[in-house]
Write a structure and sequence with these properties.
By secondary structure, the protein is of the alpha/beta class. About 50% of the residues lie in helices and about 15% in strands.
Length: about 260
Amino acid sequence: MPRLAGKVALITGAAGGQGTADAEAFVREGAAVVLTDIDAAAGEALAKRITDSGGKFRRQDVSDETSWKDIVAAALKEFGALHILVNNAGTIARQGIVGTTLEAWNRTMAVNLTGPLLGMKHCAPAIRDSGGGAIVNISSTAGLTAHDDAAYTASKWGLRGLTKTAVLQFAAWNIRVNSIHPGQIAETGFFHSGGPAFAHAARTAIPMHRQGLPKECADLVLFLASDESSFINGAEIAIDGGYIAAGLANMRNLIRSQFTGANS
């Protein structure tokens, strides 16, 4: 039996990169999906391509509370239930503290932190009334360590903490809430926006010496959304090729090898 047979899922930021990979995995495993994104053209094309067995696209700015109310109501009307929320929508400004504009700060917080808050606020009661389920918040390794982008880092650390509060408040509703923390993931808008020098540096620091793939993140999201992870709640899982665990030691060893090689 498909792993999400009979489940209804809502995935934000579904029109590209990891969101699309999540949507493809969920449909493949039997879920009906509500796909949302601010990019209507790409979202409609995705829905047409992958949701022959059931699914809808809705344009959404996740920072708009009214849109959340409307989309949850539409999902319940269309499918009669809601079991899974994936808070995937995100943005990045790539501005340091001194260079951060208030406009970029506010927009990053609105999408990366307020959006998931509103998603949980309006989806959790529907998931409860559907018998329970799972929420997966897409954070970042920037939510586990330092990152040059001030607003992005703050928002992802905030989402990590918000996930813990959700565990406390939703466990009694039979809703599990976990966060995943991707590192460098190729074939995404975030990856391309960093530029080749950043990608090279990150790949060098990652002990596995490669970027991850959207499908690898989607496989983790699928696991956390399914009943296979029924006793996992409040976890923060780095999916980063070992960067958080050993990136610093990996760079130390690399520099040591270069140093000793140059002087041997």
